[in-house]
Amino acid sequence: MAEEVFAVGGVMKVNTALQEVLKMAFIHDALARGIRKSAKALDKCQAHLCVLASNCGGPMYVKLVEAPLY
């Protein structure tokens, strides 16, 4: 069963919520796509969320985007 999140209008699935967040970030020109732009945003501490695909190219990409919890 997929995880569900409570939204203002009712219940929303996690993937649907993620799609909405990414769409809004794209509309407001606040979406860094690709490894280079994402790495720049992470280095400048401008990123609020980083989504990494489960089928990414290798462990070096995972290491690049992993961050310690504060």
From TrEMBL:
GO molecular function, a single term: structural constituent of ribosome
One Pfam family of this chain: Ribosomal_L7Ae
Cellular component, GO annotation: ribonucleoprotein complex; ribosome
Domain of life: Eukaryota
InterPro entries noted in UniProt: Ribosomal_eL30-like_sf, Ribosomal_eL8/eL30/eS12/Gad45, Ribosomal_eS12
Keyword Ribonucleoprotein annotated: yes
Gene3D superfamilies registered for this protein in UniProt: 3.30.1330.30
Domain Ribosomal protein eL8/eL30/eS12/Gadd45 intervals: 17-67
Alphabetized UniProt keyword annotations: Ribonucleoprotein, Ribosomal protein
Keyword field contains Cytoplasm: no
Subunit architecture: Part of the small subunit (SSU) processome, composed of more than 70 proteins and the RNA chaperone small nucleolar RNA (snoRNA) U3. Subunit of the 40S ribosomal complex.
Family label: Belongs to the eukaryotic ribosomal protein eS12 family.
Job of this protein: Part of the small subunit (SSU) processome, first precursor of the small eukaryotic ribosomal subunit. During the assembly of the SSU processome in the nucleolus, many ribosome biogenesis factors, an RNA chaperone and ribosomal proteins associate with the nascent pre-rRNA and work in concert to generate RNA folding, modifications, rearrangements and cleavage as well as targeted degradation of pre-ribosomal RNA by the RNA exosome. Subunit of the 40S ribosomal complex.
Record-given protein name: 40S ribosomal protein S12
Organism: Lynx pardinus
